[in-house]
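sanity check this chain:
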Amino acid sequence: MTAPGVPARLENDTLLRALAREATPYTPLWLMRQAGRYLPEYNATRARAGDFLTLAKTPALATEVTLQPLDRFPLDAAILFSDILTIPDAMGLGLAFAAGEGPRFAHPLRDEAAVARLAAPDPSRELRYVLDAVREIRRALGGRVPLIGFSGSPYTLACYMVEGSGSSDWQTLKTMLYARPDLLQRILSVNAQAVTDYLNAQIEAGAQAVMIFDTWGGTLSHAGYETFSLVYTRKVIGALRKQAEGRQVPCILFTKGGGQWLEAMAASGADALGLDWTTDPRDARRRVGAGVALQGNLDPMTLMAPPAVVRAQARQVLDAFGPAPGHVFNLGHGISQFTAPDTVAELVDEVRTYSTKLRGGR
């Protein structure tokens, strides 16, 4: 059932049709981190909020920044403005963002007692601000394009929860993984339940697709990826709500650095796989077949180049994926804060124009 004040019909459902591997007149496009610091209007809103967490936890402001890129560019989806660390913050780990340092937790998980106390939060209480933002964004979109909800993967969340911050080598996390795998698996089990509950709550609130960001899964060993990341992600995907508002709610799985595990990822139950820029799209399609859609995979640093180069690189990506159904154009990771908005406009125009020609349009 559609929430009050939310149109039941989408004006542009190209993204959802592409994720269902249906034919579309052009390749739909959205950008990871599309509402962010490369936009001057985002920076103005963030300054008005005072800090990042206030921005993310105020539904009206989260709605404002979610819509900003759509007001500039003809994108085919909105993505909820939030942060992957909302779940561990709701678990009481004390999230803070220090200027120039990124996220930090006041209470990282370092001993058996802390791990034993860990419990999945109730999204309707501890994460209500996110669900309120989903509802408000859906109303504000007015059926223009679908809204994507998201979460970090159980493993990626655990990286921050154990380490206490970002890391170049995840030494503390990896020490626990090898010395006390039982503790890490307890964290991952709780996280899997938390991510499942969170994404289902987002779908109930109005998210029309969801994405799981396994940002740090690619740092695991070959065997470790299955044991500590994919097995828990499969549990999440298997328990997600599959239908809402009379249509499928697709799930996109993105593991940065996960190109070597595409077959296993394709068997996870995800409807689409995000590819980073190191993965050859032709090889990816050969390996996974037509059973899943693919999303990606322009190198974000391409957007530092002159517009003619950006357009040429976009055509290369589109040619590599080809005209067959089931491709969503995106970057291979989040857009850089140093990207010029005018360059994004060039990219969006080229993707729409060239992919229309690839599909036989004008």
In short: The chain has one domain: 14-358. The chain has a mean pLDDT of 95. The radius of gyration is 19 Å.
